[in-house]
Amino acid sequence: MLSTAVQILAFALALLGVLGATVATLLPNWKVSINVWSNIMTPISQMQGLWMDCVWYTSGVFSCTMKNSVLSLPAYLQTTRAAMVLSCMVAAFGLCLASLGLKCTRWGGSHRAKGHTAIAAGGCFILASFLCLVPASWFTNEVITTFLTTDLPDSSKYQPGGALCVTFISAGFLLAGGVIFCLSCPGKRTRRPDYTSSSNPDRPQKKALQEKPEKDQEQRLYSSPSKLPPKDIKDSYSLQEYV
């Protein structure tokens, strides 16, 4: 598993990504108009988001209108809505898994279980980053394509807003955090020779069983009186005959 400091850094990046994706989903400036009017009662800027359209007037008034009808929205806007909400949910679930997979926490099970949990959290963050990148790229493509169309008036042309920048940055944070968590897979650890290895668990036990009978034979040889050398027995018999 990676060091604790690197995991905390990955968790911080993922947290920034989740917060950024949530804020970008709610922001109304996914695309901003380029036309500026000079009259005091006309709007300076028009903004369109995923959930509302806002207008900023020269008098300082800022008004927004909610997009209540879902069926009247274009396909790319509906897809971006659903993907961003799903991305926030998946990223939030990844944060819960990441809190269990952190090495510095006491909950989450053993080190190996924490490693698997960290990999699952990294997968959630990577999936959430793609759920941000794909709809944001599609939305940006639609805005640029409409802007480059020459037969539309300038009042109907929009440019990408700040919410798209926040979305791309948040997706980068989520992707970086997910990759770091996925690299925290527990590898094969080298063990000492006196412990039982996973490849050959019977090897140290066999060695111990082989050494034990040899020690028992040596103890019996020196402790039993019947195991005396034959030379000593003959000398004792000869001494008795002489007496």
From TrEMBL:
Gene3D superfamilies: 1.20.140.150. GO terms for molecular function: structural molecule activity. Pfam families: PMP22_Claudin. GO terms for cellular component: bicellular tight junction; plasma membrane. It is a multi-pass membrane protein. PROSITE patterns: CLAUDIN. Residues 189-243 are annotated as: Disordered. The keyword Heme does not apply. It is found in: Cell junction, Tight junction; Cell membrane. The keyword Nucleotide-binding does not apply. PANTHER family: CLAUDIN. Belongs to the claudin family. This is Claudin. The lineage of its organism: Eukaryota, Metazoa, Chordata, Craniata, Vertebrata.
